[in-house]
Amino acid sequence: MTEPIKVAVTGAGGRMGREVVKMVLEDEALTLAAAVDPSAGPIDAGSLVGKPATGVLVTDNLAEALRNSGAQVLVDFTVPHAAYGNTVTAIEHGVRPVVGTTGFSTEQIEALDKLCRDAEIGGLIAPNFSIGALLMMKFAAEAAKYMPHVEIIEYHGDQKLDAPSGTSIKTAEMIAETRQELRQGNPKEEEIIEGSRGGYYNGFRIHSVRLPGVFAQQEVIFGGHGQTLKIRHDSYERAGYMPGVNVAVKKVIGYTGMIYGFEHLMD
User: Fold this and answer.
1) What CATH number has the domain spanning 131-235?
2) Hey, CA dihedral for 187, 164, 158, 150, is it positive or negative?
3) Which of 23, 52, 92, 207 is deepest in the core (most CB within 10 A)?
4) Active-site residue list
5) Higher-scoring residue by pLDDT: 155, 102
6) If 0-12 CB within 10 Å is exposed, 13-18 middle and 19+ buried, where does residue 267 land?
């Protein structure tokens, strides 16, 4: 029988981190090696699934956790200003990072790819682990071949720190791969209020909505002569991301280099 993959979770005390801990504890093919969080004390991994979680290193020091726990994979759902450093720390310890935190620049992803290749390990940065969201991106990229006039509206709660979302940026990148740059709208249009037309990307616009009571939704709207096409995805709870995280943890073991986008693991 294959030994379970040893997983460390950073941001384990957060709402997404707790879901990851629960997912790991419920899968016999995985074992929770470490739970890392600045408020490490209150984390009770076992309480999340109603059974004891023995042998788990609980700490607020990521390097210590990776050095002493034997972790093979680190799952990171933290905040943008911490995620890059966490990912570098993981690679330096020979641990494969699976990162759901957004906000990485192209330059940072390229640097992390080099670090992974030098260490001969794999890693994944995924703006979204939801299967439905990934299908939305694929369908949008296909539609852009035939309906190049497009705008993206993404909705998140008011505590989200980055805008636009990583999901909308990834969607825009995938659309740009199938669509030649086309500057949309009337060339004489004027923004009466600055920013009202949204962020500019490859000729089209991305709009970010931040409101309490919203979880995570995105709508990609295409316009053509006498018609529109709307491709929308709605997430209602964090548990919806866990099947994708589970697949990523298991598949990243077999890769070398930093992968950007969960869609590369889907097929």
Assistant:
1) 3.30.360.10
2) positive
3) 23
4) 156, 160
5) 155
6) exposed
